Amino acid sequence: MEQIAQQLMNGLITGSAYALMALGLALIYGIMHVANFALGAIYMIGAFLMYYFVRWVGGGSYLLGLPLVMVVMACVGALTERYAFRLVRSAPHATGFIVALGLYMILEGGSCVLFGHDWREIASPYNDVILNFGPVIVTLQRLLIFVVCVLLAVCVYVFIMKTLTGKMIRATSQNHDAASLVGISVSRMSLYTFGLGSGLAAAAGAMIAPTFMVGPAMGLEPVTKAFVVIILGGMGSVRGAIIGGFALGMVESLGAAFVTSMYKDAFAFGILIIVLVFKPTGLFRR
Amino acid sequence: MATRFTSGKFWAYMGLLAVLAALPWTLKGNYYIYLAIMVGIYVILVTSLNLVIGYTGQISLAHGAFYGIGAYTCSILQVRDVLTFWPALLVAVIFTGVLGALVGLPMLRARGPYFAIGTMCLSIITALVLLNWQGLTGGTSLGGIPGPGQPTIAGVKIDFYSNKVYYYLVLIVAIFTILAVHRIVHSRVGRAFMAIREEEELAEAIGVNPMRYKVLSFSMGALIAALAGGLYSGYMGAIDPEIASVGMSFNLLVMVLVGGAGTISGAVVGTILLWMLPEVLQAAEEYKPLIFGLILLVIIIFMPRGIMGKVRAIHPRIAEWIP
Amino acid sequence: MLLEVKDVTKFFGGLCAISQLNFEIREKEILGVIGPNGSGKTTLFNLITGVHKSDGGQILFRGERITGRRPHEIVRRGIARTFQVTKLFGRQTGLNNVIMGLHCRTHAGVWGGLFRSRRTRAEEKASRESALELLEFMHLSDVRDTPAELLSSAQQRRMMMAIALATRPTLLLLDEPTSGMSAEETAEVVDLVGKIRTGGVSVLLIEHNMKVAMGVCDRIVAIESGEKITEGPPEEVAANEKVIEAYLGKD
After folding, report:
1. What is the tally of structural domains in chain C?
2. Would the CB atoms of A220 and B246 count as touching at under 8 Å?
3. What SS3 state is found at C206?
4. How far apart are alpha carbons A83 and A71 in whole angstroms?
């Protein structure tokens, strides 16, 4: 029983990172029908930026680094939209995906060259503080991950649903032509959304970084899992991304504890394959 | 009277064949013959991916996995003394082809990004299994693969451990593969592939069963990839799970798209270019993903039909001469 | 009875596109389907050809149930169609387009393609000849080597018909074959439709052009909002009150 509670807690934590990534992917897919695989590299660079920030400024500044990382990577994401994705906007959807793959390769390859292949650790002071919630044990760092990710997700949700810009983004996601007709600049909404999605992915990477090793290849599996989440939850669905992310996190943790931990990462992928076998269009319609 | 032997095209290709046959004798050093062999193996592999992507329009990222499965099946059968190289190769090829069909049947009902991500998941799982199932695959590396060895055929001793000899083996297999794919593409089956790729709804409306042909091409692609894998394992003598990784699938995708998906010469050109370029640039191994990614981006944005796609569109005569 | 549509119903979400539709087509008959925009005519085609699954009722072709079958299976049984929006293999030549239509009547598989047996080569030759004949019949011989996307609009619509005919159907569904055509081009199509019927193929024709519908059809079915409002010989249907109302609105 305590084991289950512990695993659920762990699952919620990793799930919150998945939820954030999936949210970024869902927003971008929703507006431009692009499966932006490059977010995996953005996630990784977010982690690297945090690593260098902490090394440069000092361990206690960890949380200060987060907004910085998010803003920088949001700009990078916007740049990718403006100078890569926008050029293929009118091409078939597969082209956008290939552009994303190309960007991923460039960003990961570039990081390898700049930072080297090695995995490294971020020293965060929060890693050492351990908290007890009844039978469940959690480090402050991990609790922070959960809190920050949930906060960000809620903020984004509110932004998308309640603010004017958010509504404009939603309108554009539903129908480009109609949005243009009422004066919304599709290009600008696309730019914002790519930026927002990238910022979220970078945040997920930066938050997760201290609990995990940082290396150029770290983004591949998380982004693939995030894709699994949105394929299962509905490709453009904000709610599906968030709920699905948490769900996946918990399934993984429970599976790792009670079935096998060696193939833990394979759960997400196995689930996707099984679902696709029975429902090639995903679990929910968009 | 016009026969094949009076056609200029025929002699042009014969000339090319002569050049290729003479190649090992003109290359200075084993390293270059090694390169030539690797390019040959990859030509076979990329041609098989081209069959899937170029002719059914589905982006598959599972091809590295089929390459790896072919290599590992062939190797494991030899290492465990179950079969010698050639029968093991045959079994590996058939096994992977069947696997491709079994996997393709459910997966190909999904489209676009669903299919692509699904195949990526397959790749990741395959690499994970190859790495972790140590008892079967030897974990991080599987060595001691005998390969074709040094058999005596009709009183002549053929030394497959020699680079030059292996080059000719790979060259012959590559040529046959290209010819076979060319034939299939220009037959009724190939027309069905084209129809599905160009206008699937119309294809269905004239009696083409899309699933059947998608699975067929996926399975054939897997089969040929396994052939390449077996040849690779026979050459290297040792293999590791990296060859089945997602990174490998990415690289193969770049080669197909840069050369031109849906063109046979594209697969060849793309492979040669992407092997030669790092060599010419004297680039270290670690720069490859960066370079490949840049090339992919440039090509997909400015030349989506690839180099050969563009070249062949210049004039129908060119398209006639270069498949 | 060639085709029987019995009590067929189709919903899209909450919207009823076709409601309890009933009609029949006989051998060697030209049946017209008319109705205002959005009345469900193309949906009807999609139901017959298996693109959509019906939510009720049955469709029988030569007495055999075809409801629920996939499109390529229905083509093999002898029903072919053209599309409202021109669909062709644009980058292929006219000849290759028509040869494509012969797919379901030929058999060569991977082995045949690979080894080019005598049978396969004979089949390829026969296909080519049949395709050339069809092009001739549809007045498209001169564009046999031209990529389909370069053809004129009228030629493209005739090409669609040629491809459909290549599947050797017994029932041909034409979705607004004369749309966008001049009077001359329309007359050409009307003539061809007549010849197609003489050749033993029944035709189910969606037409907006009243003159064409009245002129070429043996019988007409009028549909509005997914329901049949009347059926019968052209003159009767044209004089029917409800039909006039549907097209011109209550006055």
Report:
1. 2
2. yes
3. strand
4. 18
Q: Check CB contact under 8 Å for B124 and A276.
A: no
What's the structural domain count of chain B?
1
Which residue range forms the structural domain that includes residue C185? 3-78+169-248
In a domain, B285, yes or no: no
DSSP symbols for B154-217: TTEE--TTSHHHHHHHHHHHHHHHHHHHHHHHTSHHHHHHHHHHH-HHHHHHTT--HHHHHHHH
In a domain, C85, yes or no: no
pTM score, whole prediction: 0.89
Domain assignment of residue B97, yes or no: yes
State CA A22 to chain mean position distance.
5
pLDDT, tens digit, 9 for 90 and up, residues C146-186? 999 999 999 999 999 999 999 999 999 999 998 888 989 99
Residues C103 and C226 grouped into a single domain:
no
Sorted by where each starts, the structural domains of chain A and their CATH numbers stand as 2-278 (1.10.3470)
Return the ∠ at Cα B146 (arms to B144 and B151), rounded to 5°: 160
Q: B159 lies in which domain range? A: 35-243
C147 and C33, same structural domain? Answer: no
| Nearest residue in B to A272, CA atom | B118
B116 vs A35: CB contact, 8 Å cut-off?
A: yes
- B279 occurs within a structural domain: no
Which of C119, C153, C187 terminates a domain? The answer is C153
ipTM: 0.90
CB contact under 8 A, B191 and C80: no
- Please check whether residues C36 and C67 belong to one and the same domain: yes
Q: Put the strands of the sheet holding C171-175 in their side by side order.
A: C79-81, C171-175, C202-206, C30-34, C219-224, C227-232
In a domain, B309, yes or no: no
In whole angstroms, what is the distance from residue A193 CA to residue C121 CA?
56
Is the same domain home to C100 and C129? yes
> pLDDT per residue over B42-95, tens digit each?
999 999 999 999 877 789 999 999 999 999 999 999 988 889 899 999 999 999
Paired strand residues for C205: C32, C174
Least confident of A59-63, B32-36, B46-50, C34-38: A59-63
Last residue of a domain, one of C105, C122, C153: C153
* Tokens encoding B106: 């459910």
C29 burial via Cβ count (<10 Å: 0-12, 13-18, 19+): middle
Which CATH number does the domain housing residue C19 bear? 3.40.50.300
Chains near A with 3+ CB pairs less than 8 A apart are B
Q: Facing residues of C11 across strands?
A: C16
Nearest to B207 among C88, C114, C167 (CB): C167
DSSP structure class, residue A262: T
Compare CB distances from B208 to C72, C88, C123 and report the shortest one's residue.
C72
Q: What is the pLDDT of residues C12-45, one digit of tens each?
A: 888 888 888 999 999 999 999 988 887 888 899 9
Choose among A224, A235, A100: nearest CA to B245. Answer: A224
Amino acid sitting at position A7? Q
Interface of C with B in 3-32 (CB under 8 A): none
Residue A68 contacts by C-beta under 8 Å, 6 or more apart in sequence? A49, A53
Write out chain B residues lying below 8 Å of C171, CB-based: none
The DSSP bridge pattern shows strands C219-224 and B152-153 to be unpaired
